[in-house]
Design goal:
The protein has about 525 residues and is mainly alpha-helical. The protein is about 55% helix and about 5% strand. It contains 22 helices and two strands. It has helices at about 10-25, 60, 75-85, 115-125, 160-175, 185-195, 220-240, 240-255, 260-275, 280-290, 295-330, 340-355, 355-365, 380-390, 395-400, 405-415, 425-445, 445-455, 465-470, 480-495, 495-510, 520-525, and strands at about 140-145, 150-160. It has a two-stranded antiparallel sheet. Strand 1 and strand 2 form a beta hairpin. The protein is elongated and about 100 Å long. The protein starts with 7 loop residues before the first helix and ends with a helix. Mean pLDDT is about 90; it is low at about 5-30.
Length: about 525
């Protein structure tokens, strides 16, 4: 299976990783002395004291070796810290991090990486037709788009997935095995399929649409005419004429015994989803208000309100239609062959159209510490959907709704005092400190004890009980080092320098401290 494009963000990550690799493993001219750190990345040299923005060892961290938890960690890393603190020491040491499946593909076999599906299609096609297709098949469309502040840019849009080419290859192989058909019949079907795939890279509005597959005469073989009807509907679908495609798919699905009936029923569902996602009126309205008229805030919302209301009505109607079709399909034994694909389509529709509903499911799963967040991709799903649903730091009713989850409440509390990428907002940090203190008093849990100490921007005598409680936590607890590190800051602020130094020296001597974190403790020991 192959359908890839490398987005700019992925390229940047790859380049950053390459830079780190060369710093860490570049071959020196001579073997360095034991105390020579010139071949180490800056972040692990003993004089490195800059803020750490991620765990020193992600794998060990996820298995319970928390080291020093930092304010600037991302949501996923802080979730891990919260989860570790809910469980006994060592509970996660052998937990699998293998992504066996994800929410979108649950119940489906893992995709087989069996090469490029377009190449396979062309190879099987070439056994009957030597001439290449007039339009080279592609997975993507290349579009031009405009965005305020960026201008015009190239956009790559997935149009015909690997499954489309794999299905065509499978169908052609079946046609080759059908002794009732001639090679001319098979070439006729190939011509129709070429017409379908010609629309995969065509961008509506950039020129005439590629011709639809030619309809076959009544004298053609019955199976060939049935496949041709499906090709005609599929070409309409890939040409973005979803209403017409749905009518033709529905007509096929209404014929009992039609060989393409199950796939036509699936095609009709996909029409509903793609029509809702690629809403031309909505895209035009938002583009006009944001890019052309440059409206913002209340003026922008007022301008798009009529289009938004019509979009909501269309989505509601599509959702009802989709639900009714799914219910009927579940009860129809003849559609069993596409039932998993239909359920996948339903889950994909939820991701695209109601991401907040799916994210809520992920957040509920993450709120259960014993649930493995990796094997079914709950953590990945949350990370993917959160930016679509909420700003980096939620406020108001949205914040109240999201913070009902204990792990997310902890994350937002700690991040309220983050100094990454800029100095923390004093008002936000102080409010989160008060919240953490209240939650610790209520729960007496170490997670909220740690949050209380981490958010103590200006430690006061009121924070001494938390510092004393932290000093009493057993050293085998994964959060022990973090508790001592932040308790020392409170103790020092209240004039208890000897106690602060004792706490920091214990952390410095602990084997749980990663060498990347050691400079932070040493810097705290040098401070007065």
């Amino acid at each position: 299976m192959k359908m890839t494009r490398t987005p700019l963000r992925r390229i940047c990550i790859a380049l950053a990783g390459l830079g780190a690799f060369s710093l860490a493993f570049g071959a020196p001219a001579a073997r360095p002395a034991d105390d020579d750190e010139s071949d180490l990345p800056l972040t692990v040299r003993s004089n490195y004291v800059a803020p750490i923005v991620g765990p020193a060892d992600d794998t060990a961290y996820a298995r319970g070796a928390l080291g020093l938890v930092r304010h600037g960690y991302g949501r996923a890393s802080l979730f891990v810290a919260w989860r570790v603190m809910q469980l006994p020491p060592g509970a996660l040491a052998r937990e699998s991090h293998d992504r066996k499946t994800d929410w979108l593909h649950v119940g489906l076999p893992r995709p087989q990486r069996d090469g490029d599906q377009i190449e396979q299609w062309l190879r099987v096609r070439g056994e009957l037709v030597q001439q290449a297709p007039a339009v080279a098949p592609d997975y993507f469309r290349q579009e031009k788009r405009k965005l305020e502040g960026i201008g015009e840019f190239d956009a790559t849009v997935g149009q015909c997935g690997p499954h489309a080419y794999a299905f065509a290859t499978q169908t052609l192989r079946e046609l080759k095995a059908d002794a009732a058909l001639t090679d001319d019949d098979r070439r006729t079907w190939i011509a129709g399929q070429d017409a379908v795939f010609a629309r995969c890279s065509w961008v509506p509005g950039t020129g005439p649409a590629p011709a639809l597959p030619a309809l076959l005469p009544a004298s053609a073989a019955a199976r060939l005419r049935q496949l041709n009807a499906y090709q005609h509907a599929a070409a309409l679908f890939y040409g973005d004429d979803y209403a017409a495609a749905r009518r033709e798919f529905d007509a096929i699905a209404a014929v009992p015994g039609h060989p393409m009936r199950p796939w036509a029923a699936l095609g009709a569902l996909r029409c509903l989803v793609r029509e809702a996602v690629r809403d031309a009126e909505w895209e035009a309205a938002t583009d006009d208000a944001w890019n052309k008229r440059k409206l913002r805030d209340d003026a922008y919302r007022a301008a798009i309100a009529p289009a938004a209301a019509r979009r909501r009505a269309r989505l509601d109607a599509s959702a009802k239609d989709f639900s009714a079709r799914m219910k009927a399909a579940e009860a129809d034994a003849s559609l069993a062959v596409v039932r998993d694909a239909m359920r996948y389509t339903a889950r994909r529709a939820s991701l695209q159209l109601t991401p907040w509903v799916v994210m809520d499911l992920a957040m509920k799963a993450l709120d259960l510490p014993l649930t493995n967040p990796y094997t079914v991709g709950a953590l990945d799903l949350f990370q993917e959907l959160y930016p679509r649903v909420a700003p980096d730091r939620p406020v108001g009713d949205l914040a109240a709704d999201l913070r009902k989850y204990a792990w997310f409440d902890f994350v937002v509390t700690v991040q309220g005092c983050s100094d990454v990428p800029k100095a923390p907002d004093a008002a936000i940090c102080d409010a989160e400190h008060a919240h953490a203190q209240a939650r610790w008093q209520e729960t007496k849990h170490n997670a909220w004890l740690l949050a209380t100490l981490m958010t103590a921007r200006q430690p006061s005598a009121a924070d001494l009980p938390a510092a004393e409680a932290a000093r009493a936590v057993p050293a085998e607890r994964p959060e022990w080092a973090s508790l001592q590190f932040y308790a020392a800051r409170v103790l020092r602020a209240q004039g208890r320098e000897a106690d602060a130094r004792t706490a920091l020296e214990a952390v410095a001597a602990s084997p749980t401290l990663h060498k990347r974190e050691r400079p932070l403790v040493e810097a705290a020991l040098r401070a007065r």
